[in-house]
Amino acid sequence: MSLIKDIEKEQTKKDLPDFGVGNNVEVHVKIMEGDRERIHVFSGLVISRKGRGINEMFTVRRIVGGEGVERTFPLHSPAISDIKVVRAGVVRRAKLHYLRKRVGKATQVREKRPGATKRAD
After folding, report:
1. Of 15, 17, 41, 37, which is closest to residue 28 (Cα–Cα)?
2. Per-residue pLDDT at 78 exceeds 70
3. If you average pLDDT over residues 33-57, what whole number do you get?
4. Is 59 helix (H, G, I), strand (E, B) or coil?
């Protein structure tokens, strides 16, 4: 069992930002096109995080051309080069799947005020 934990410890990323559900993030993903590699930025709202350790995953949702697009990323994947928190949001749920049914301004999440406590003010 300790051998598995040692391997997982090597594979985990240490330089991850502190982000949670309700935050708007930019995920920089490495994409291979033939023999070239480029970085694709997928920005949107984090609607869920699940798993622990090396198996942790998060789902980002955005609207493209009036259609909702979701991508689920493994947090410690080598394909993810960077994660940037654009805007911190205040939510009272662990999963925001109810946003799938909403359109327009109804999908907005309240922004966290600078200097505010963790509790929604």
Report:
1. 41
2. yes
3. 94
4. strand
Output the six-digit token pair for 38: 């480029």
Instruction: Give the Cα separation of 57 and 26 in Å (integer).
Output: 15
Residue 23 and residue 45 in contact, taking contact as beta carbons nearer than 8 Å: yes
Fold of 22-101: SH3 type barrels. (2.30.30)
CA 76 vs. chain centroid, Å, equals: 12
Smallest CA-to-CA distance from 51 within 90, 14, 22, 77 is with 77
Quote the distance between the C-alpha of residue 74 and its chain's center: 9
pLDDT of residue 66: 85
Residue 107, classed as helix, strand or coil, is: helix
